[in-house]
Amino acid sequence: MCIVTTLNQGLRNGGGIGDILRAPSSQEPLFAARVVYDMLFFFIVIIIVLNLIFGVIIDTFADLRSEKQQKELILKNTCFICGLNRSAFDNKTVSFEEHIKCEHNMWHYLYFIVLVKVKDPTEFTGPESYVYAMVKDRNLDWFPRLRAMSLAADEGEGEQIELRSLQNQLENTQLVVKALSQQLSQLRDQVFFFLSLLLSIYDYLISLCDNYACLSQW
Ligand SMILES: [Zn+2]
Known about the structure:
Residues 163-190 form a coiled coil. The chain is an all-alpha fold.
């Protein structure tokens, strides 16, 4: 009973158990022990233990709040259907808002699932029977994971532009190579001409020397 009373009265008073107990006279023999007891109760129970409990509660609330914020952030910036991030639609023909409103509207997907569930299977179109089989197997492969048709089209266009520029570069390089080969053949012709000229000069000089030698013998 003593422990229960101590906790009950001590925790509900700001200064601890000292507030509810009889104030001892300084003449009493146990005055010092009583002061130490009151102070220890105040420090250990009121300051440390209660603040630990409050800290745990506040921490838990902070964790819950940050988790909620994280979830809201993901819901706001990620497509519910394909999981693509808002940044994936930067500098693209379609914006993130248009994407989640028109291309990957989650309610349209839900309506489609409801449609294949209530429609007569004999009247299914090709895509409807495909999705019906997938939904029946609880298979989610028919959802576009991390891809969107508009982004794929953009990428295709980008690739075509890149291919065209590469082709242009190749054509330019071929022209340059052709011009260089022409210059090279001209240079070769000139070198041959020069060499033949040198050879004829050399022959002429040799014949001159021979003539000179003959004349000197005479
Ligand atoms: Zn999407």
